[in-house]
Design goal:
The chain is an alpha/beta fold and 276 residues long.
């Protein structure tokens, strides 16, 4: 197939490199900054530098941009996309964009299948992209009414480039679970490092500090958009976190050892039951 990647940051760049490393598909790279596309071409991560007009030759188009930027791109360039081809995204939210994406697909005659690669790093940009970034990771698909044939083709492509599992779900379930598994940890990490103690952690910290603070190295523009677009499920998770933190706070403040031990044991049992 001919596969177009729009947006050559860490995710788009990793898609390009994975496709070139693990498949025989032809990769077209489209990027707002020409120098990045030229670098990708020089490194062999793409076969050609494309333009929106190149999308008429692509069997699959993967949009690797901020959520709203994906919509904006399709509104400007949907007329160039090959009729009957598959268009997917890599956005970390789905309810806020899927209805608009489906309408644009109907307008221009291509097939939209929502997706979200559950992989990444703390750093961003093409330079940190990796052909093996997706190895063993989960690939989430939100079909949004797409034909099973298109959903199956996208799932097969994901497995071909190294994803370990494919999860099929709805935009609503996706956003609810991502609020817990991805967005809440980012909020927690940022709140944690805002402590005045943080700048003095050297010499006093080990694995616990590293693990909790890791994702505070955040792309503030992107994650602000993701948090606000998914605010209802995220607020629910934050309320649950606040409730649990307050229970621990009160037990410690009142020196209630029995309650504190029971709360800690409950957390231990949850993790143990999950086999993690």
């Amino acid at each position: 197939m001919k596969i177009a990647i729009v947006g050559l940051g860490i995710i788009g760049g990793s898609y390009c490199k994975a496709l070139k490393s693990h498949t025989k598909h032809t990769v077209i790279g489209i990027n707002r900054t020409p120098s990045t596309a030229q670098k990708a071409l020089a490194l062999g991560a793409i076969d050609e530098i494309g333009t929106p007009e190149s999308l008429q030759n692509a069997d699959v188009t993967i949009l690797c941009m901020y959520p709203q930027a994906c919509i904006d791109f399709l509104e400007r360039n949907g007329q160039f996309i090959k009729k009957g081809s598959i268009v997917t995204d890599a956005a970390g939210i789905k309810r806020a964009i899927c209805p608009q994406m489906v309408k644009l697909a109907e307008k221009y005659g291509y097939i939209f299948v929502g997706s979200h690669p559950m992989a990444g790093k703390e750093k961003n940009g093409f330079d940190v992209s990796d052909a093996d970034l997706f190895m063993g990771a989960s690939f989430i698909i939100t079909p949004c009414g797409a034909p099973q044939k298109a959903v199956g083709a996208l799932a097969a492509l994901a497995l071909e480039i190294g994803f370990g599992t494919v999860k099929i779900t709805t935009p609503e379930e996706h956003d609810r679970m991502i609020a817990f598994t991805s967005q809440l940890p980012h909020v927690l990490a940022c709140a944690y490092v805002l402590s005045p103690s943080c700048p003095n952690h050297n010499g006093f910290s080990a694995g616990s500090y590293r693990d909790v603070s890791r994702v505070a190295n955040i792309n503030s523009k992107l994650w602000s958009e993701l948090f606000l677009e998914n605010r209802e499920p995220l607020i629910e998770e934050l309320q649950e976190l606040n409730k649990n933190l307050n229970a621990l706070f009160e037990a410690i403040k009142s020196e209630d050892k029995a309650t504190l031990a029971a709360l800690l044991e409950k957390g231990h049992q949850v993790k143990q039951a999950l086999g993690e």
